[in-house]
Amino acid sequence: MRFSCQQKTLVNSINIVQKAVSSKTTLPILKGIYLEVFNSHLKLVATDLEIGIEHVLEVNTYEEGSVVIDARLFSEIIKKLPDAEVEIALKEDNHLYIKCENSEFNIISHNPEDFPELPTIEEEYSYEITEDLFKNMIKQTVFATSHDESRPVLTGVLMEIEEDTLNMVALDGYRLALRKGKIQGPIDNKVIIPAKTLSEINRIISEEENIHITLTENHGLFTIGNTKLISRLLEGEFINYKQILPKEYKSKIKVKTKSLLDSIERASLLAREGKNNLVKFVVDENRLNITSNSELGKVQEDVYIDLEGEAIEIAFNSKYFIDALKIVEDEEVYLEFTTNLSPGILKPVSNDNYTYLILPVRLSAD
């Protein structure tokens, strides 16, 4: 095996696949990146047996072949090389030779036959979605997934495809994020994608092109340009989120997103010193009063609003509100409340593509 390419190009390719390298494994081969040279191309593959990432780039090919090299060492070496042509060759003693200008390395490699093959997925049909939309949908849902491994389905995002609509849903028991978008595909489907997988896809997406998604019973294949990401799907039944979403409200507020975010962030400076990051909302006529108390003192914020319906007093974990407001792109949002013990709803004013539900915190006076 022998090839050459530009250092920056190789660094970029390593960065794409490296996130799939296993950091917690007793198998040395999983700590490596598989390299294969064929037909003027270099294929890089990494996997932790849950996620596999494959990336292909054009190189100058002198001899075809394959090898597995320690990912961390290979990455650090290539990143430190000058911005110039890099030549890489596999020697007879299974050492990988790396040369760039005045630098030369000889690194011990692993047998490529020991590297696990990625699952074969028949791409008979696939769904297609624009990269900017999918990136946005991931950003607006994945943060609301659970980190509790005892409830595996909640550590992922539900992808529910109905006709030409994709619903992505995440919830952790305290909040729910629902994002709707358009997708092209042949059949309805419903799968749960691990949050880690979606975070990696979000990191890889950079080019202005459509993403192709193929779903099987156990795996999801995401094709982004010259990169393929294969992930196991989460098993289990996702919570019926449609039953959780309130059908009506008694109080509806329209408020400027930035004003509300800034006020809650200031109030949360004291809320963080309490037990629940608690901030209290008092809604009355054209004013939303936000207060927080702790042993260190008290803070009070007033935000101007448009109120439709009844006045209400309700309290929330400030972190959950801040998380949602930071990813809303609209200048104004609606807040909908029923009672001070019922979930609150946050929606952008300009469209109904995004819905965020948050459970209130019981006030001590209740």
Automatic annotation (TrEMBL):
Can you supply one Gene Ontology CC term for this chain's record?
Answer: DNA polymerase III complex
DNA polymerase III beta sliding clamp central domain sequence ranges: 129-238
Cellular localisation = Cytoplasm
Point out the signal peptide segment. Answer: none
> Which segments constitute the DNA polymerase III beta sliding clamp C-terminal domain?
242-362
Q: Which domain of life is it from?
A: Bacteria
Would you kindly state one Gene Ontology biological process term found in this protein's UniProt entry? Answer: DNA strand elongation involved in DNA replication
- InterPro entries, per the entry: DNA_clamp_sf, DNA_polIII_beta, DNA_polIII_beta_C, DNA_polIII_beta_cen, DNA_polIII_beta_N
What are the DNA polymerase III beta sliding clamp N-terminal domain coordinates in residue numbering?
Answer: 1-119
Q: Which GO terms describe its molecular function?
A: 3'-5' exonuclease activity; DNA binding; DNA-directed DNA polymerase activity
Q: Which UniProt keywords apply?
A: Cytoplasm, DNA replication, DNA-binding, DNA-directed DNA polymerase, Nucleotidyltransferase, Transferase
Q: How does it assemble?
A: Forms a ring-shaped head-to-tail homodimer around DNA.
Q: What's this chain's function?
A: Confers DNA tethering and processivity to DNA polymerases and other proteins. Acts as a clamp, forming a ring around DNA (a reaction catalyzed by the clamp-loading complex) which diffuses in an ATP-independent manner freely and bidirectionally along dsDNA. Initially characterized for its ability to contact the catalytic subunit of DNA polymerase III (Pol III), a complex, multichain enzyme responsible for most of the replicative synthesis in bacteria; Pol III exhibits 3'-5' exonuclease proofreading activity.
* Family label: Belongs to the beta sliding clamp family.
Name listed for the protein in its UniProt record: Beta sliding clamp
